[in-house]
Amino acid sequence: GIRLAPKERLEIPVLFMPAEMKIYKAVVIIHVMRENGENWPYEVTAESNTDLNRNVTVAENGETQGILWIYPINGTPEAPQQKSVVIRCQARQRLEQRVELLLIGVMPGATALPDAGNSAMDPTGELSNTPEVTGGSSATLEFLYELQYQADEIRSQLESLVGMQLVEKEWDTESRIVTLIFNVVFSPSKPMRNEATLIIQCTAGGLWKFPLVFIATEPEVDDVINIEAVGLNKESIVGFKLTSQTR
Questions:
Q1: Domain extent for 84
Q2: Residue 164: inside a domain, yes or no?
Q3: Are residues 169 and 213 in the same domain?
Q4: Average pLDDT per 10 consecutive residues for the chain, totaling 247 residues
């Protein structure tokens, strides 16, 4: 019963308050009819395309009685942001560290999307196979993960220095907590402090975000240069070579 004048804007509020970590789906349908109750003279025939048949309501005489706008809504619950995980390594060294992340409130895999694959997204954007998680029941959990950066500048600094791989998943059916174990490789070339966010999504529903802080400390001293004086007010010269690691 909402009346709209020509060119008038209508805002439709949508509230999403999930009770569980699973996928929610709904459809918002807007049905528009003429205020005077008359039909549009356009007739929808059997030869009309499928989209047109779906988006109109037809009167008995074949004329168009109403127009439909259909908006599918997919709701994905997101867990509260977790505490930061700090990964620290000395510059010009290579760190390989196992990181355990807890996903609380995971729903069984029975509600997973029908086209969901058993795969994970690595930081390069390519899909890689990951093992299934089974907890002594028929429930199977599948996850996608991706490392996101706040800016392109941070991405350019970290992307070639950081590698992540999901190596193990443990599923506790009673507490509905999944433990994901990642193998993180960090090989910084110079001192830095940058942040990234690990986004994990369960195909059964739910989104978790884990802030990661990558810290590269000062490197080891390359060498000690000793200069012996040859006398007062006289110069002493020592030469040494520096080699660039890049072009």
A1: 77-108+142-220
A2: yes
A3: yes
A4: 89 90 90 88 71 77 86 91 92 95 76 36 39 41 90 90 93 85 95 94 90 95 90 91 82
